[in-house]
Amino acid sequence: ELLQGAGRSHSSTQAKESVEIIKRAGIQNWSLDLISGLPSQRMGIWEETLSAALALKPSHLSVYDLQVEDGTKFGRMFDDDDRDNPANPLPTNDEAAE
Predict the structure, then answer these.
(1) Would 3 disulfide with which of 8, 51, 80, 83, CB 3.0-4.6 Å?
(2) 80, 70 Cβ separation under 8 angstroms
(3) What is the three-class DSSP state of 61?
(4) According to the model, what pLDDT value does residue 47 have?
(5) Percent of the chain topping pLDDT 70
(6) Strand, helix or coil at 31?
(7) In sequence order, which residues have a C-beta less than 8 Å from that of residue 13 and are 6 or more positions away?
C-alpha cells in the first residue's frame, strides 16, 4: 500500500476506522492531513485519495506536498532533483504540479 511505501505505520483502512471512532465519540471538529507526491502516487491514486478524504467530511483538510530533504529517510532513498527519471518512483515534477 502507498502509505506503507512512504514509511507510515498505518493503512488507509486504519485511518478510516479512526475517523469512525472520532465520529462515534461525538467529536465534531477534527482535521485530516494528506501528503501529495508520495512514491508511486500518480494522478489517479491522488484523485481517489482526495475523494475518500472528502467523503469522510473532516472539519478541515490540509494537503502537504512531499519535500525530499537531505538527511531524512526519503533523502537517502530518492533524489528530489531526479523526479523526471522514469526509474524514480516519485511523481514527475509535472505530475506533482497538477
Answers:
(1) 8
(2) no
(3) strand
(4) 93
(5) 82
(6) strand
(7) none
